[in-house]
Specification:
Distance between the termini: 36 Å
Structural class: alpha+beta
Low-confidence stretches: 1-9
Number of helices: 5
Mean pLDDT: 92
Strand order of the largest sheet: 3-6-9-10-11-12
Radius of gyration: 17 Å
Number of strands: 14
């Protein structure tokens, strides 16, 4: 090991049903979007009781499941420990990547649902959309798909696009999709 290195980047991995799943480095668009969502949450939550975390913090779900969400909000300070989050975050955001999309939409969605995560966002940088799932009676339901209109849509489709995403945890907090998805490749 080179002693001149200021730091050694560690590989990140999740544990899905007891199996190690290696995490790849996020793309530029993935990083931009996750960072912008984190910033919006951070700015809103300053001075409030809930806390925001970004990629790199482990969530210990079960003995056989440990995940690393892109962004999350935790309101119960008792579940925050030195090595990660030991309990259900209140809101989890996963930004889709080619290697994680299937897991984010199926395995992790079911895992978060069973764990009691109140709100789950699936963010698609290609479609410029956010699917918001809310927990009710222990099950997720799709509350809404928010997306920016694009040139491939007909006028009627563009009129149906909702581009302001409310955060269900708060009555006075929403995010503009233009601010999340601007300048992407």
């Amino acid at each position: 090991m080179n002693g001149n290195l200021a730091y050694q980047e560690e590989s990140r991995e999740e544990l899905h049903n007891g199996e190690i799943v290696m995490m790849s480095s996020p793309s530029v668009n993935h990083n931009r979007v996750a960072s912008r969502i984190f910033s919006a949450f951070y700015n809103y939550l300053k001075g409030k009781s809930c806390e925001i975390f970004n990629y790199g913090v482990d969530v210990f779900v079960t003995e056989n499941d440990r995940v690393i969400p892109d962004v999350m909000i935790v309101c119960n300070k008792d579940i925050v420990q030195k090595d990660g989050i030991h309990g259900a975050p209140d809101l989890v955001v996963e930004v889709l990547s080619p290697g994680t999309a299937k897991s984010d939409r199926s395995y992790k969605k079911t895992l978060y649902e069973n764990f009691g995560v109140r709100e789950y966002w699936i963010v698609d940088t290609e479609l410029r959309s956010i699917e918001v799932y809310l927990l009710s009676d222990g099950k997720y339901y799709l509350d809404e798909i928010y997306r920016l209109p694009n040139d491939n849509m007909i006028d009627r489709e563009k009129e149906c696009c909702k581009d302001i995403v409310p955060v269900s945890l708060y009555d006075d907090f929403s995010i503009l999709l233009d601010e999340i998805f601007y300048g992407l490749f």
